[in-house]
Design a protein that fits this description.
This protein has 191 residues and is of the alpha/beta class. Helix content is 49%, strand content 23%. It has a 3-stranded mixed beta sheet. Helix 1 packs across helix 2 and helix 3 crosses helix 4.
Length: 191
């Protein structure tokens, strides 16, 4: 394993196991080393809170909708009761000031089972682990969500090669149906 990650991987693993105090500290530490930084992360979390508040005021059973917000881009996943609710949830998210894009990963009820949720979590964990083991990938820069065997990857890659390595790692995981690449290539600092 790459030595530069050895200090930050323990909090990452603990936060994934649901240890609230250490996980919270690890989460803040992880945000500090991301390219989007603590300010960008907190801005995304505030946007997510605003969307969630509006969503719960307008969409029935809003608690079944999961959201990932990364650089003002919103990924919505989960299982809703009808196509109408799905369309309404996406409309509400798009209507919130500051939202740049909404990625619709919602399914309609009856399409998923509990074992599929477990499988999706396992795919996400396997990919995160693989990225931390990669010498040429700066893993803290990636946010990964898996839903219905589709892997959504947000992040900032140092280069085209790093992005390709991340995507290849995702496709190498058994059971992955599709990878949605939401990765940006880091802009070089002016010289």
């Amino acid at each position: 394993m790459n030595k530069k990650y050895s200090i930050i991987i323990l909090p990452l693993l603990l936060s994934s196991c649901g240890v609230p105090i250490v996980g919270g500290i690890g989460s803040v530490g992880m945000h500090a080393v991301e390219d989007r930084g603590i300010g960008g992360t907190f801005s995304d979390e505030a946007l997510q809170f605003t969307i969630r508040s509006k969503l719960c005021g307008e969409v029935p059973n809003c608690h079944v909708i999961d959201m990932t917000v990364y650089k003002s881009r919103v990924l919505m996943t989960g299982v809703v009761e009808s196509q109408k609710v799905k369309a309404e949830a996406v409309r509400v998210a798009k209507s919130v000031d500051g939202v740049k894009e909404v990625i619709d990963g919602l399914n309609v009820e009856g399409q998923d089972t509990f074992s599929e949720y477990i499988r999706d979590g396992w795919i996400t964990t396997k990919l995160k682990t693989a990225l931390y083991a990669e010498e040429d990938v700066y893993a803290p820069n990636y946010t990964i969500t898996t839903f219905d065997k589709v892997v959504y990857i947000f992040g900032i890659a140092e280069s085209q090669e790093e992005m390709k390595l991340v995507i290849d790692n995702a496709y190498n995981i058994t059971g992955v149906k599709k990878v949605v690449n939401l990765i940006e290539i880091k802009k070089s600092a002016p010289k």
